[in-house]
Amino acid sequence: MQMLLSLVIGLLYAAGVYMMLRRSFVKLVIGLLMIGHGTNLLIFTSAGLVRGKPPLIDPGLKALGGPTNDPLAPALILTAIVISFAVVAYTIVLVKRTYQEVGTDDLREMRTTDR
Amino acid sequence: MNALVASPVLIPMLTAILCVAAWNRLRLQRVISVLGALALLAVSIWLIVLVDSGGAVSTQFAGWAAPYGIAFVADRFATIMVLLNGISALAVVIYSLGSIDERRESMGYHALLHALIGACSGAFLSGDLFNIYVWFEVMLMSSFVLLTLGGERGQLEGAIKYVTLNLLSSVIFLSGLGLLYGTVGSLNMADIGLRIRAATEADIPVLTALSVLFLTAFGVKAAAFPFFFWLPASYHTPPPAISALFAGLLTKVGVYALIRVFTVVFTTDPHIMGPIISVIAALTMITGVLGAAAQFEIRRILSFHIVSQIGYMLMGLGVAIVANVRADRLAETLGADAPDTIAMRSAAAIALAGSVFYILHHIIVKTNLFLVAGVVLKLKGCAELKHIGGLYRSNPMLALLFMIPAMSLAGIPILSGFWAKFAIVRAGLQAETYGIVVAALFVSALTLFSMVKIWAEAFWKDQPEGDPRAVESYGAVGAGAPFKPALMYAPIIGLAVITLCIGVGAGPAWNLAERAANDLLDPVPYTEAVLGEPGLQRLAALGLYEFPAIDPIGMPIETASDGTLVPTLADVPTGVTP
Question: Is the model's pLDDT at A37 over the cut of 50?
Fold first, then answer.
């Protein structure tokens, strides 16, 4: 499972970087999103995968018995997802406004501030 | 106590909420905004006085003890940053009253400004790495919107680069964070620092690789070489008040995070990270200043200078790490008490204190220069050096107010920048890192060249033929923007006075920076503030702390010259005979 998830993460990063290197602004945003998803999976995987063991204390016990899933990692991911939701909302508006203003989504046409 | 440590975050956030509540009443928003900035400044002064006299304080939210709860830690370095945050916030808020158009104000300008300021405070005070990530994101979101507020073409194009690179850096930060949590199993910085110090040989290569991820992530935020391209592409596009706040604060949050992470958290492989950071620092300085030499728009020149100044701050950090490694090596060959070893240790302390002092001086000066550039933009409607001139004749006051921060930036003696550069260069010489010292002096000369270029073109030469207002210029915001000179000059004068005070009274400021640097180099104060007694026990187990010996009846003990332990008589309570 760890191997499979690692491969998926690697694939998401690679695809994300590829998309970011394209000239279209929309593809750039999609690339950023893919890397973001890859990162969320990375946190999930690196915190350690334990199958079918939620961090719940069994009835009759006072503490967790044996290894369970780490509840903190999903909490971190949830926070990251909420943040990336806001970021995506913003970037989509930015794409739209830039398209209205510049008339294209070709990033090569958007270099006037660099001159 | 708890509320005090968190108040530099709570006050701006509350101000932002109140500004949103007063959405349609601009006048009320302005009053709230100014009051909020004043309250933040008052609290940050209070906090720095408290922390400087009594040592670092911390609080854990929701009563979960560290390392499980989210910690807020106010040590000297953090409170210095919060104070600078408060000063530049007040300056920018007052300046915006005289320069920002009502259209932008009605789109929530004040609320966003305070959200940004609060997020910066949060990043400075947080003692938890994931919490720093969250504050970074809050900071980024509000800065994204501030940058594009108004939606002019230049702003949007600049924002694309700013948004893309900063989001990428956040993702790298988050990846590093996830892997670090997987490796050491903690997010509290003091706790991670202890765990990393106790790490086994097998873990060290992983931790070094992770520290490079953090270096990259914070390097983008700090606009260090080779990640700085977003900065000169975007900082000159929004209205001057906004770019002044960005220029003063945002990159310094990245520098703060770098210094914090490489002194408190990643201490495993200094002989690798020290040279890397030093080389990055040298290249940042040089590329920044050369970039500036090729520019002819005031705010763009100043933007490139932010990059080159970041190099100096990183140089302090790099030299400090290198000097510490050399001191360790000398301690092995010559002994810990040899004069060479002690000189090398003090070089590390001076370098890091130089970094802190440099940030202290830079935030004030850089904010001020952008504010001055804003006045030029208002007066001439353009900031292209080719199309403007004659400001010395028409506005001698403005020329003087430009001269103070500009010369301070270049490092002319008795102004604050001179002492900052002097300290860092001296530490570099003492640590025998000559290459970077040469780079620093060379860059300093070129900085003077750039400042003189702005002076000669905008202030000294006569106004050239043609109307500068006809030239398209970013952030000029012609329609509807007020121009109230009194409100724009007041913060400029205030910041210039602070620059002069840091220059003339460099002693107290330097001592404060030195105390802050010593707190960073010594793991004890930070660990004690966050983790308390258990943290000290773990430090003692690592051989980094010694508990003061106490005899069974509770009296401190000293070691006599013959090696026996004797109670110290001075500490004996009256009425008790030993």
Answer: yes
Q: Is B32 helix (H, G, I), strand (E, B) or coil?
A: helix
* Closest to B120 (Cα-Cα) out of B31, B242, B30, B251: B251
Find, in chain B, the residue whose alpha carbon is nearest to that of A110. B157
DSSP class of residue B552 equals: T
Show contacts of B287-292: CB within 8 Å, 24+ apart: B287/B225, B287/B226, B287/B228, B288/B225, B288/B228, B288/B443, B289/B443, B289/B446, B289/B447, B289/B450, B290/B446, B291/B232, B292/B446, B292/B447, B292/B450
The one-letter amino acid code at B299 reads R
In this prediction the ipTM stands at 0.94
- List, in order, residues 6 or more apart from B120 with CB less than 8 Å away: B85, B135, B139, B249, B250, B253
Would the CB atoms of A43 and B174 count as touching at under 8 Å?
A: yes
3-state DSSP call for residue B455? Answer: helix
Burial class (CB in 10 A: 0-12, 13-18, 19+), B578: exposed
Q: Which of B343, B155, B260, B322 is nearest to B523 (CA)?
A: B260
Dump pLDDT digits (tens) for B36-75. Answer: 999 999 999 999 999 988 888 888 887 777 788 888 999 9
User: For residue A16, what is the nearest residue in chain B, using CA coordinates?
Assistant: B168
| Percent of chain B at pLDDT exceeding 70 | 93
CB proximity A88 to B under 8 Å: no
The percent of residues above 90 in pLDDT, for chain B, comes to: 57
CA angle B83, B494, B449 (to 5 degrees): 95
Q: What's the 3-state SS for B477-524?
A: CCCCCCCCHHHHHHHHHHHHHHHHHHHHCHHHHHHHHHHHHHHHHCHH
